[in-house]
């Protein structure tokens, strides 16, 4: 199975660092963000290749190529890593373009499900468990997509994509509604809600109607694919007890991530909406 790492954004909120350093090579705990992600992927026996999606013409592409070519000297897992190009068309548009590019090159297996990972998230998501839950969701619910979820206090929820649904088993939900960064008035007044952790398994069945599910235009995976599948009851959720989750979206978040890594602490939510 392949994992596609979404990293075609321009990292404007990480400037001035991102002028000279690709976001994926920004360091947390003396390790590039990309290596945190690859290390997590390498722990799964089912993930054979990671495809890093970057914007065509990215000035940092050579730096990424150099890192990828030399990482085997320092890390021992057998994960293959490659680069694919997109156009900065948001998460859905970039994924669609990367998959189409892979198809044109004869590299896309339309009989195989695939994993999608955000390129600015450091997390301890159990990928093997996610893949197992996805298989169960396909058989029991007919789901086309399984998103990893974790719970946060409702006061933090507007920074995330929020899911609501019906509990099927201990960690499996049928998602009936998904809203990206909902307004506070759309949320419960107290308690916790389930939010998107940024690790998603997509069924190969979407290739039967590729243009409907992942159109080749600027579109967000979250507000388009997830929301549409939830409305059709074709979206599943894997509720995970995540102990580490860090959104490295800004300079301040990068600094806080380093502090928390060295202290052995947990979750950094995305920045408040008004700071984006």
| Main sheet characteristics | 5 strands, mixed, barrel
Indicate the CATH architecture: Alpha-Beta Complex
Per the principal axes of the C-alpha atoms, what is the gross shape?
globular
Counted beta strands: 14
Instruction: Tell me the CATH superfamily.
Output: Spore Coat Polysaccharide Biosynthesis Protein SpsA, Chain A
Instruction: Give the structural class.
Output: alpha/beta
Binned, the helix content reads 25-40%
- What CATH calls the topology is Spore Coat Polysaccharide Biosynthesis Protein SpsA, Chain A
Radius of gyration, taken over Cα atoms and rounded to an integer in Å: 18 Å
Q: What is the spatial order of strands in the main beta sheet?
A: 8-11-9-10-12
Individual helix count = 8
Mean pLDDT: 88
Give a brief rundown of this model.
With 276 residues, this protein is α/β, with parallel strands linked by helices. The chain contains eight helices and 14 strands. The model has no long low-confidence stretch (mean pLDDT 88).
Give an account of the 3D structure.
The protein has 276 residues and is of the alpha/beta class. It has a single domain, classed as Spore Coat Polysaccharide Biosynthesis Protein SpsA, Chain A. The chain has eight helices and 14 strands. It has helices spanning 17-20, 33-42, 61-70, 90-104, 127-141, 210-213, 221-231, 251-263; strands at residues 2-6, 27-28, 31-32, 49-55, 80-86, 114-118, 121-123, 145-153, 161-167, 172-180, 192-202, 235-239, 245-247, 267-268. A five-stranded mixed barrel has the order 8-11-9-10-12. Strands 7-13-14 form a three-stranded mixed sheet. A hairpin with a 4-residue loop joins strand 9 and strand 10 (172-180). Helix 4 (90-104) crosses helix 7. It starts with a strand and ends in an 8-residue tail after the last strand. 43% of the residues are buried.
């Amino acid at each position: 199975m392949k994992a596609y790492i979404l990293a075609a954004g321009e990292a404007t909120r990480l400037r001035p660092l991102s002028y000279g350093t690709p976001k994926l090579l920004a360091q947390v705990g003396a390790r590039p963000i990309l290596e945190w992600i690859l290390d997590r992927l390498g722990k799964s026996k089912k993930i054979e290749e990671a495809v890093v999606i970057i914007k065509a013409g990215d000035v940092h592409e050579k730096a990424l190529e150099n890192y990828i070519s030399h990482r085997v000297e320092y890390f021992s897992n057998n994960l293959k890593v490659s680069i694919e190009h997109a156009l900065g068309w948001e998460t859905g548009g970039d994924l669609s373009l990367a998959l189409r590019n892979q198809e044109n090159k004869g590299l896309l297996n339309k009989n195989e499900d695939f994993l999608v990972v955000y390129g600015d998230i450091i997390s301890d998501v159990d990928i093997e468990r996610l893949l197992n839950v996805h298989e169960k969701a396909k058989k029991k619910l007919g789901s086309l997509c399984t998103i990893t979820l974790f719970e946060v206090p409702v006061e933090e929820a507007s920074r995330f994509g929020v899911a609501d649904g019906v509990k099927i088993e201990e960690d499996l939900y049928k998602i009936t509604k998904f809203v990206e960064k909902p307004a506070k008035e759309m949320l419960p007044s107290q308690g916790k809600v389930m939010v998107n952790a940024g690790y998603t398994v997509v069924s190969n069945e979407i290739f039967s109607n590729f243009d409907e599910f992942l159109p080749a235009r600027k579109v967000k995976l979250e507000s388009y694919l997830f929301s549409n599948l939830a409305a059709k009851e074709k979206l599943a959720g894997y509720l995970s007890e995540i102990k580490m989750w860090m959104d490295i979206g800004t300079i301040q978040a990068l600094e806080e991530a380093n502090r928390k890594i060295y202290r052995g602490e947990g979750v950094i939510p995305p920045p408040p909406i008004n700071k984006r």
